[in-house]
Amino acid sequence: MFSMTRRRVIYEGKAKNLYEGPDPNTVIQYFKDDATAGNGVKHAVIAGKGVLNNRISAHLMTKLESIGIPTHFIRSINMREQLVRKVEIIPIELVVRNIAAGSLVKRLGIKEGTFLGRPLVEFYYKKDALGDPMVSEDHIITFGWADPYELDEMVAMAWRVNDYLNGLFAGIGLKLVDFKLEFGRIWGEHGELYIILADEISPDNCRLWDMKTGEKLDKDRFRFDLGDLVEGYQYIAQRLGLIPEGGIMKAGGLDEQAAEKLSVIENDLARERQLREIKPSKPRKH
Ligand code: ADP
Ligand code: AIR
Ligand code: ASP
């Protein structure tokens, strides 16, 4: 294990901090308990959130890797941290929607809960100062945020992620309403470019509704004051078999002992890929 004290903070985000990893190709994602909405306008610290998101994201990324989606996830380090492959983030938030909710309902007046029939893919430019505005494929290409090949690959991966996660969540009685993905670039030993899934997949960026009761279990609980956020996140983690039935909370906050007992999640496929890529270099001109 590498030294905890020599770590340098690379980035302080709203929900996560990034630290330097043990080698230059990696970073450590530290999942904070901070919850924000409206790009930081609303803010709270909610004990247990970071631990749950760390675990849920590690699990889902590993599952996606197993069906051939390349992800940044390497392994969990402890209850709040995971080791990931360092990427150059593509500044696009790709949203996939199966059921109308959130900004789609607000913007177009579609009734919340309307089944969309065909998954709807949307793009948002990742820029807090502008409130992450919605953009078209043409904006992305015109302004060079991604090239057409990268965009095609991102959309194709997003469809596969949607198919797979729809099935996975349906299997535990949850509806996957919508979600947001971020992708990043890495370069292989011969300068070849790969697009891989980055950031996190958790109830912070997926809408999940209980199939039977319709209860909202995701970050909308916080955004719209619908109920205890951690209760919703714990329910998802329990259904996924990631935490004990009794949960990981106790009166007054996180049950540190229960949380420390959670097993390590590893992505063997990503580790193998990382060993193959020895010398990252700049992309070649075509
Ligand atoms: P925000 O930047 O919106 O406040 P977070 O608090 O989640 O969001 O911060 C995590 C940041 O790390 C995000 O900006 C995300 O794009 C970036 N990121 C995610 N995965 C990686 C990765 N593998 N390498 C480099 N940066 C990453
Ligand atoms: N999302 C978008 N930006 C940040 C996040 N977390 C996620 C939401 C929701 C989906 O993208 O969590 O699952 C669509 O969000 P909205 O607000 O556009 O309806
Ligand atoms: N991710 C954004 C924020 O943290 C928007 C949201 O999730 O509502 O403010």
Based on the model shown, name its key terms.
286 residues, alpha+beta, Phosphorylase Kinase, domain 1, D-amino Acid Aminotransferase, Chain A, domain 1, five-stranded antiparallel sheet, 16 strands, binds adenosine-5'-diphosphate, binds 5-aminoimidazole ribonucleotide, binds aspartic acid
CATH-level-4 superfamily name of the largest domain:
ATP-grasp fold, B domain
Average pLDDT works out at: 94
Head-to-tail CA distance between termini: 41 Å
CATH fold name of the largest domain: D-amino Acid Aminotransferase, Chain A, domain 1
Q: Could you tell me which ligands this complex binds, including any ions or cofactors?
A: adenosine-5'-diphosphate, 5-aminoimidazole ribonucleotide, aspartic acid
Q: Strand portion, in percent?
A: 25-35%
SSE sequence, one letter per element: EEEEEHEEEEHEEHHEEEHHEEHH
CATH architecture of the largest domain, please?
A: 2-Layer Sandwich
Number of helices: 8
Q: Please indicate the count of domains.
A: 2
Largest sheet: 7 strands, antiparallel
Total beta-strand segments? 16
Percent of residues in helices comes to: 25-40%
Question: Helix and strand layout, with pairings?
Answer:
Layout: E1 9-12, E2 16-20, E3 26-31, E4 34-37, E5 42-45, H1 49-66, E6 73-78, E7 81-85, E8 88-89, E9 92-99, H2 102-108, E10 115-125, E11 134-135, H3 137-142, H4 148-170, E12 174-187, E13 193-198, E14 206-210, H5 220-223, H6 229-239, E15 249-250, E16 253-254, H7 256-260, H8 268-276
Antiparallel strand pairs: 1-2, 2-3, 3-7, 4-5, 6-7, 8-12, 9-10, 9-12, 10-11, 12-13, 12-14, 15-16
The structure holds adenosine-5'-diphosphate, 5-aminoimidazole ribonucleotide and aspartic acid (ASP).
